[in-house]
Amino acid sequence: MGATYSSQELYDGLVGSGLIIPVGVPGIFGRNAVFEDVLRRFDDHVSRVAKDDGAEKMLFPPTLDRKVFEKSEFLDSFPQLAGTIFSFSGKEKEHAELSSRVHAGESWGHLQTMTDLVLTPAACYPVYPSFTGTVPEAGRLVDMQNWVFRNEPSTEPTRMQAFRVREFVRVGPPDVVVAWRNMWLERGVTIMRSLGLPAKSEVANDPFFGRGGRMLAATQREQQLKFEVTIPVISEEKPTAVCSFNWHQDHFGKIFDIKTADGKLANTACLGFGMERVCMALFKHHGFDPKTWPAAVREKLWP
Ligand code: ZN
User: How far is the CA of 128 from the centre of ligand 1 (A)?
Assistant: First the structure.
């Protein structure tokens, strides 16, 4: 592939080799068997690295209880990214209107009402309510994977509206949580470099909304609450985050009443691998055909 970077070239290459299948909406596409195999192999590789950590495995559907979503304060920070699920709850008369409007190509949004669900805005959100109460002295560690939705249509292939995140969540006293986050930050870089990817870690911030958001982002950086492992995929100057590390301090502890064994508010932190982004980084750096990848990389993913 060489060391030149272009969003359009990567997209065209992924589509041209059949790895991703456009569906008409920017940021949404299908994945073929080769893409999925790479994704699963990477997932297995992470499992092997983390096998002695003693994580509890959990799996949630890509939907979140709207009440949990409201409590999480996501809308205060990222209203532009959220996806709320609406459905039809009318009677015959409204149904007739709905059908005729859809067939006539007219707007029909006003005939939908809000359900009790939103699309999962971050892979770890469904787990926090399950921590309510007192966690064991050593805290807890959860291993999960989920589809995440973000309302940010883009033609840039690494900026997707729906993608999978392999996520680990740690809850416990602040020193335990921060030490765990730091251990994984090093591990995340090592994992990527062992796959022949030029990864580095850096302090980061979330895309908080509006003018107030700029302050929140500055504070987040100052307190080093967010780190990312990045790899150049579509740009050398603006490398792509493939793994994100967030220390929430006692944000979720407060909201969901999570206590440590000594009765204090628990801290939480999470780290998530953007699975599709990792695959795209591998395709960018090693080529679109995994059979031709360097032996050292293949040995790691196909042991
Ligand atoms: Zn998370």
Answer: 10
